[in-house]
Design brief:
This protein has 74 residues and is mainly β. It contains one helix and four strands.
């Protein structure tokens, strides 16, 4: 379970799922015995409401990190 905001500058404890945003990333697949199914490894991350207003989580070749939310023009 997710316990704290993943933003290193915040680390607010998670109390309610309605506050903020949960991200789920596939961080790798594990192959068991030959001929068996490939098992996915999913990790859950949470950004609190304050942080999720201006930040998002992204996954790239370097891992998972916090990035500024893209500006949208209305």
């Amino acid at each position: 379970m997710v316990d704290y905001c993943v933003n290193p500058g915040c680390a607010r404890p998670q109390k309610y799922l309605r506050d903020g945003r949960i991200y789920i990333f596939d961080v790798g697949s594990v192959q068991g015995d030959p001929g068996s199914k490939c098992l996915r490894h999913l990790e859950h991350y949470w950004l609190c409401g304050s942080c999720s207003a201006s930040l998002i989580l992204v996954q790239d070749g370097a891992g998972i990190h916090v990035a500024p939310r893209p500006v949208t023009v209305r």
